[in-house]
Amino acid sequence: MPRIDDRDKLPDDFLKSLGFPSITVHETFTHFDFTLPGRRVLVIGPMGSGKTEFSARVWRDAAIAQKKSDVIKELTSTNGVDRRKVFFVRSEIDGARFQDYPVDALAYRSGYIRCGGNIARIRDSFGLEQVLADNPDVGTFIIDEASFFDERIAYVVRNHSLERGILFIFPTLILNFRRDIFNSTARLMLDIATDVIPLTAYCEHPDCMKDAFYTYRYYQVEGEECPALYFDPLIIVGGDTRKDDPLNPNYCSRCDEHHYLPGKEYTFFHLKPLGEKATRGNEEPLRQEMRALKQDIKASALYRNLCDRYSHRADSAIFMNALKSGCLAEKALIYLFCEQNLIPEELLVRMVYDLGLDTGYLTKVLSDNLRPVSFDQPLLTSFE
Fold first, then answer.
1. Is the predicted pLDDT of residue 203 greater than 90, yes or no?
2. Total structural domains in the chain?
């Protein structure tokens, strides 16, 4: 039998020797370490897992660390920046979520802390560069929901961390509501990260207590849960309050079993091929499907696909509820134009006016997804 070195003994062996019962000993919940320069820390997990609350704990730890002596300052400083000095950065498009909080609040689900002058809202990586330039002695930047920004932000962060020793913390979604990598920015954030701290939450389904790894998007329509379809717009900016509205989604954390995502097969079997045909000049099949989504859902390929996929399941009703959310044709066109780049703007605008689609919804969501389109002047050409 191989000899067991004393250093390999489990921690509870020592506790047993002191008369304690057999228990599971977990890793200590430690204060944040500001002494290591150049870290790029991803804090990931679904909505409600405590990512922003983790940031608030870092902020509180920094306030305690700043009261220490110059001996500690030497340990936490590099090239003139002190990592005990923390600055919080949030996206401009995220403002609607926090209207009930002070303008300087680092807000999370169970409360908030006030950052005073050490908080800013930015639109893109160029805004971050300006914040870095304006705060040359700050050594820790917490950038909330970094996946909302352009890809360039990953390299801005990497360069400042390597050259100046700045610590960056990113409480962010890496997976979107589709359980895909959020976008190319999220992919690059994974590439440059030095540390990843994964967080989970309880599944928020009322009959479940499993760990949830995914953010679930759904609409509440007349009191019923209506899962977002796979081609729902990637970003829909709104508040954190619960809404009973076919156009404004709700979010919660869900496990595998209760994360419903209808329409993925339809998207690749039907919607994308229709967009490709339209791009090659055969626009009529796409127009017919969009008209069905707008006016007669049971005539659509989407309805037929969902029936084929889910009608035999005991939980079929929850999947079919997805058809009760609003602006299905608008969402399908946004997906083809904004995410897949399959249809040109001119075709998008023509189809919107030809079918009488909701230009207000389209304008807002396309702007949220950084692909603004003006529908003020309809084109004279049409499908007729």
1. yes
2. 1
